[in-house]
Every structure is written in C-alpha cells, then in structure tokens.
C-alpha cells in the first residue's frame, strides 16, 4: 500500500506547487508598466519603448520629454 500513499502525497505536493505558480499577473503588469502614451493611452515599460512607439505609431509627433 505504500505506492498508493506515495501517489496521494505526490499529487498533494504537485497541487501545492501548481497553486503557488498560478494566479493573475495583473499586479506584476501594473508595476512594470510605468509610462503611457498621452495620445493613445498605451502603457509602456520605459522611456525607450515610448520613443519607439512614437516612431512607429505617431511619426509626425515628437515624444514627450522624460520629466513629463
């Protein structure tokens, strides 16, 4: 009967391990996305991505400075 007990214990451990890794990543996303485009309200991670976004999506406009 030890195999049955080992199987149950392994299933319990796997369930605990999987439960910790699952979940929403919304909190991490909110922390990571700190810069937003004032024109289209797209959230970006940093100022370099904002510059690239302006170059591709808003080529006629200049990106805002880092201080604003």
UniProtKB/TrEMBL annotation:
Q: Name the residue ranges with Basic and acidic residues bias.
A: 1-19
Transmembrane feature ranges: none
Xref: PROSITE patterns: ZINC_FINGER_C2H2_1, ZINC_FINGER_C2H2_2
List keywords of the entry alphabetically.
Answer: Cytoplasm, Metal-binding, Nucleus, Zinc, Zinc-finger
Entry-linked InterPro entries: MBS1/2-like, ZNF706/At2g23090_sf, Znf_C2H2_type
Q: Which domain of life is it from?
A: Eukaryota
Q: Which Pfam families match?
A: zf-met
A single GO molecular-function term is:
zinc ion binding
Q: Where in the cell is it found?
A: Cytoplasm; Nucleus
Where does the C2H2-type domain start and stop, copy by copy? 35-63
Where is this protein primarily located?
cytoplasm
State the residue spans of region: Disordered: 1-26, 47-68
Q: Which GO terms describe its cellular component?
A: cytoplasm; nucleus
In its UniProt entry, what is this protein called?
Answer: Zinc finger protein
Which species is listed as the source? Quillaja saponaria (Soap bark tree)
């Amino acid at each position: 009967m030890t195999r049955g007990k080992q199987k149950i214990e392994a299933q319990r451990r796997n369930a605990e391990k999987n439960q910790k890794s699952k979940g929403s990543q919304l909190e991490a996303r909110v922390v990571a996305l700190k810069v937003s485009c004032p024109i289209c309200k797209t959230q970006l991670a940093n100022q370099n991505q904002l510059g690239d976004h302006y170059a591709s999506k808003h080529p006629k406009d200049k990106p805002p400075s880092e201080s604003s």
